[in-house]
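Design a sequence for this backbone.
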């Protein structure tokens, strides 16, 4: 892998000196100011190491590195300053996001040494992350394969739940979508402790004895305990524990947790799980809708209405168009027209759903006079419109 460093400073002479000093041992990119640095990240990144001046007009080094982390959270950060605001610097250092802090002017070779150390730190962090990722993926795959062998019915159901849950999660712009996907993938793994005939009877609505019914619904408890043994999956285990919990407080487990206190990923999986169970039981489309409407107090209202739309049932979301300023833009809005700079450069094509980072970028372009307001967007209509 090519070793790449981006150095951001408002001093053109300093940047030229850095290029001369460092070009022999790494690929050096420079940017004059924070906005130019963010553009460099998007056009020529990723970089293993980012070096930023602290005091810069328009966007200081702390702001640049914070926004840079939204674009690439893997880079190692180094900061330079000739007139450090110590309170701000102490806050940044204590946050654990800064690898080195150097005062200007640096002695000969000091910056090169710090960047070399940054490359080594990047290598170590990436190596550890790759090892953890392989371990995590291997553990997940092992559980899924065990389920596929011991209980194919539950395994096939987990595949359907994953597809439906991820579709809903994307529409809801949920955080940590990867955790929702893993939770759906492992949602049925607790059935390895339940005899296949009881799983089949329970899912398809057959008559179960009291002890068999308890055995059936405890699949989430057993699945949660299994997943909790895998590092980094504690939140996933908590999600699985509450898949069968009703939004109104009923369901399993029998505790006081209700409403938004139930993990969001659990609420999503509860909705798609019940939908899937009704399909397994042979319900027709209208019967499924009718039964879900009867059970609607089991579900988060936002998730319930969107699920009906995603699953092709009756409720449809209503959309409206508005012209908004950059300050009024919100995540999830959809651009209705190609967005170009005043020089005709396409920034965002029509039809793209806005993310937090896109909105930050657009606001910066507006502040810099490179893009004109307002923006024509499509958004979900409020319930009273």
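Sequence:
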């Amino acid at each position: 892998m090519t070793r790449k460093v981006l150095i951001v400073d408002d001093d053109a002479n300093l940047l030229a000196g850095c290029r001369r000093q460092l070009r022999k041992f790494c690929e050096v990119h420079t940017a004059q100011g924070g906005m130019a640095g963010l553009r460099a990240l998007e056009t020529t990144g990723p970089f293993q190491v980012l070096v930023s001046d602290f005091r810069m007009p328009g966007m200081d080094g702390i702001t640049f590195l914070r926004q840079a982390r939204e674009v690439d959270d893997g880079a190692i950060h180094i900061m330079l300053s000739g007139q450090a605001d110590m309170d701000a610097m102490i806050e940044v250092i204590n946050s654990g996001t800064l690898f080195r802090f150097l005062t200007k002017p640096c002695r000969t070779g000091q910056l090169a040494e710090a960047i070399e150390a940054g490359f080594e730190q990047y290598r170590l962090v990436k190596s550890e992350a790759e090892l953890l990722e392989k371990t995590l993926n291997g553990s997940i795959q092992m559980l899924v394969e065990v389920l596929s062998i011991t209980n194919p019915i539950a395994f096939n159901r987990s595949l359907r739940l994953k597809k439906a849950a991820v579709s809903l999660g994307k529409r809801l712009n949920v955080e940590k979508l990867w955790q929702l996907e893993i939770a759906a993938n492992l949602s049925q793994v607790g059935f390895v402790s339940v005899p296949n005939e009881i799983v089949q009877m329970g899912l398809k609505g057959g008559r179960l004895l009291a002890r068999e019914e308890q055995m059936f619904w405890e699949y989430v408890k057993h699945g949660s305990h299994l997943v909790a043994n895998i590092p980094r999956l504690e939140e996933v285990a908590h999600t699985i524990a509450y898949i069968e919990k009703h939004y109104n407080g009923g369901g399993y487990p029998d505790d006081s947790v209700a409403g938004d206190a139930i993990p969001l990923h659990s609420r999503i999986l509860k909705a798609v799980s019940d939908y899937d169970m009704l399909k397994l039981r042979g319900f027709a489309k209208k019967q499924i809708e009718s039964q879900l409407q009867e059970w609607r107090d089991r579900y988060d209202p936002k998730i319930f209405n969107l699920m009906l739309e995603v699953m092709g049932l009756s409720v449809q979301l209503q959309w409206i168009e508005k012209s908004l300023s950059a300050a009024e833009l919100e995540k999830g809005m959809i651009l209705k027209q190609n967005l170009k700079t005043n020089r005709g450069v396409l920034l965002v094509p029509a039809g793209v759903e806005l993310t937090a980072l896109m909105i930050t970028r657009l606001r910066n372009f507006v502040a810099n006079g490179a893009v004109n307001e307002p923006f024509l967007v499509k958004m979900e209509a409020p319930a009273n419109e």
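The chain has three domains: 4-125, 151-310, 319-380.
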